[in-house]
Amino acid sequence: MRSATATAAAVTTSLTVAAGVAAVVAGRYAADAALRTEPGRPLPGGPRLSVHSVTGDRVVLTRPRPSAGNAPDPASRWPGTYALAGPGVHAVVGAVLPDVPHDPDTVVRRLTGVTHGVLAPGAQVRLTPQIHLGDPRSALGLDHADVDVPGELGALPAWFVPAARDTWVITVHGLGGTREHPMVVMPFLNGQRLPVLDLAYRGDLGAPRSPDGLGHLGISEWRDLDAAIRYALRYGARRVVLHGWSTGATMALYAAERSALADRISGLVLDSPVLDWPTTLRGLAAARRIPAALLPLAVRAAEGRSGLRAGQPPPGADPGALRMPVLIFHGPQDTLAPWEPSRRLAAARPDLVTLRTVRDAPHGAMWNADPAGYEEALRRFLTPLM
Description:
14 strands, globular, 6-stranded antiparallel β-barrel, about 375 residues
């Protein structure tokens, strides 16, 4: 009897250990799926659209069919300006044209132009907020210099667009983007005579990789932004404004809280800031088809691998620590970086924080949904800081 009991106990222990090992392995796999974001690749989770037809300045897209019990995905009807990105093709589309006759399962949008490849019927594309390809000269006709910012891991490529003022705007992209994304605001900033330093940071094309090859949602990347501040001050800036999207916005908040040069930051512009990383990690893992049962493991493993300790306050958690004006663009429909922390931060510091709520826009696409309104809010915020 003792032998049978001992054997059963050993089997149970072995199964428990095996299950524990499998859970750790699954958690690490799920964490990697969340933290390995490929720059320039649209974030996962958005619906794949089919090009139904292209005629002149119009493109007809087949809307994804709703899953059982769900309403049709609204992505194909997002208001504003977006890119259609797919294998070998990149095009820019504008407003939805509801008055043009079309089938119920399609949507018609204005086609602004095809920037790469051929937009042909049958192409599979996704909507993305990154509408420009190339560099400031080829995409926008703006003169610029290719510069290297000395970072702690090596040289960080950046575009510098010169202008007359001595307040520089340092732009930094976020999840799934590249330094091409901030080009959406470059014509406006150049029109305000503000120099722009558009940074590529660790993990970007041409920049050093982080030692573990993973993204850390800003907790280590902010030091690359700190290096960009040092570069700007060394080459003529008296003060800087940090303008970040997604994790780039999180980097800007970290820099404002931790940089030795924080007193030279005159303002922050935060577009879709990631202030609730468990939700963001869970969303990234789920969008990469990690089974729901593994999502809690994925979040815990990703927190450990990225240095985001459970219970550690995110940037902006202490509103009283803010020392400079902040403009936040965020939308309630953002499923990757929840809007509520931005709302709470603005409510806690109405003397310094302005929240511009942008509805019917996905993560990182606040400019795309309302370019004119975005730039007017930006003008009012930046004017006293110039």
